[in-house]
Amino acid sequence: MESRSLERLEVQGHLFCCSTGEITLLVVSDCLDYRLAISFPQNHLIWHLIAERLAQSYKVVAIDLRGYGSSSKPAGDAQHSNYSKSVMAEDCVKIMTQMGHNRFYICGHDRGGRVAHQLCVNYPDMVMKAMFLDIAPTLAMYSKTDFTFAKAYYHWFFLIQPSPFPENLINSNPGAFLEYSLGRQADMKMFNKDCLRSYTEMMKDPAAVHAMCEDYRAAVSIDLDEQKQDKEKGRKIKCPVMVLWGRHGIVDTCFDAIAEWKRVSDSTVVGESLDCSHYIPEEAPEVLLGHINSFFQD
Predict the structure, then answer these.
(1) Quick check: pTM over 0.85?
(2) Helix 193-203 with 206-219: angle, nearest 10 deg
(3) pLDDT at residue 59 in the model
(4) Cα→Cα distances 264→51, 230, 235, Å
(5) Contacts of 178 (CB under 8 A, 6+ apart)
(6) Which of 28, 72, 276, 279 is the most buried (most CB within 10 A)?
(7) Residue 205: active-site member
(8) Comparing 102 with 8, which gets the higher pLDDT?
C-alpha cells in the first residue's frame, strides 16, 4: 500500500491526523466534499481500498478521531465528556471549516458512524447526506440488548468498566486483544498487512487504549443522555440517510437497521445488507464504492 502524506491540524487544543495528498479530507462538501470516519479498533487506513478512487470525484478527508491513530489522546474525566460524540463531532466540524468546507457528505463506520450521527443532529445545515456503516443508533442498541447481542459485542460491556481495569488487561497483551477483536468478526487474512501493522502499533499505546475505553464509557453515559434528550426534544437527522450493514454480522441478526434509523430521522432512509461481516470498507470495497457514488449525487 502506498504511503500517504499526513497533515496535523490543531483543533480545540488537540492535534488531529488527517490523510492528505490527492485526498484533502474525510468529509465531502460543495456537492463534492466527503468525510470518512473510522471504527474501533482501527484508524483512517480502514478506507485505503476506496479513498484514492473517491478522490477522483470528491475532495475526501479521512481523519483519525480523537483517541485514535496519530491524533491527540486526551485523558478521560469523570463524566467521560472528552469522548462524548458531541465533542468528537465538534472536532470534525472545526476541522472541516478550518479546511474551508462548510457543507459536506459524511460516511462513518462503527465509532465514526456514531460521531457522524451526532454531527448530523447538532449541525443539520452542514450535512447534505449521511451514510452509516454497520451500526444502529447507540440508544437503540443498548436499549434492545439481549443475550445474543451481549455475547457477540462483549466489548461494549468490558470497555465501559471503570479505569484502569480494562486498560490494564488490554495493555498486558495488546496484540492478542487486537487480533481477537478483529478476528472474531472477520478473517484476519482479509486485512492489509500495512494496515494491520498500524492498528497493532496503535493498540500498543496505553494512551490509545485508555482513549478507546473512554469512547465506550462515553457511549453508555453522556452519549445515551444526549440521545435521550434529542428524542425528547424531537431533534432528528434532517438529511437523507443510507445505512449499509453486513449480512453476516450482529446488526443484521439483532436489529432492523432501516427501521431504527427512520426513528431518528426526519428525511428519507434507504439501505440494504451486504454480503460481508462488520468491516465493510475492507471486506466489500467495490460494493461500497458503488453505493457511495450513487447515493452522494444531487
Answers:
(1) yes
(2) 80
(3) 83
(4) 29, 9, 8
(5) 41, 199, 200, 203
(6) 28
(7) no
(8) 102
**Torsion (CA) 281, 282, 285, 291 in degrees, nearest 10:** -20
Q: Across the strands, what pairs with 168?
A: none
Residue 9: its pLDDT value, please? Answer: 62
Grid coordinates standing for 221? 453515559
Confidence band for 54, pLDDT divided at 50, 70 and 90: confident
* Predicted confidence (pLDDT) per residue in 147-182, tens digit: 999 999 999 999 999 999 999 999 999 999 999 999
The question of whether 278 is a catalytic residue gets the answer yes
Range 233-238 contact pairs with CB under 8 angstroms and sequence separation of 24 or more = 235/121, 236/121, 236/264, 236/265, 236/266, 237/117, 237/120, 237/121, 237/124, 237/130, 237/261, 237/264, 237/265, 237/266, 237/267, 238/120, 238/124, 238/127, 238/266, 238/267
Beta bridge partners of 129: 105
Q: Which one is catalytic: 91, 110, 134, 223?
A: 110
Report pLDDT for 69. 84
Identity of residue 100:
G
Residues, the chain, total? 298
Distance of CA 246 to the CA centre of its chain: 15
* DSSP H or E stretch at residue 17: strand 14-19
C-alpha cell at 207: 494512551
Distance between CA atoms of residues 196 and 189, nearest Å: 10
The pLDDT tens digits of the residues spanning 88-143 come to: 999 999 888 888 889 999 999 999 999 999 999 999 999 999 999 999 999 999 99
Q: Is residue 31 pLDDT above 60, yes or no?
A: no
Angstrom distance (rounded) from CA 125 to CA 238: 8
Choosing from 155, 210, 278, 291, the catalytic residue is: 278
Q: Compute the average pLDDT of residues 280-284.
A: 94
